[in-house]
Amino acid sequence: MVRKKKETVMLYWSLVFLAVALIAGVLGFTGLSESAAGISRVLFVIFLVFFLISVIAGNGAFRPPNL
Question: Domain tally for the chain?
Fold first, then answer.
């Protein structure tokens, strides 16, 4: 079984909350959409911080392959 990275899991949940916020917004549940959008925003910021830390540390996606 392949283990997912924490960043991938956080990105997944932020996209789930974004989808819930959009659907709730279309249906008119403003209280639900605001809270889901807030959770999505927080998860996105956390994911972005972890991504930037990994790029700065040299373990990010933009690291050139070892030849």
Answer: 1
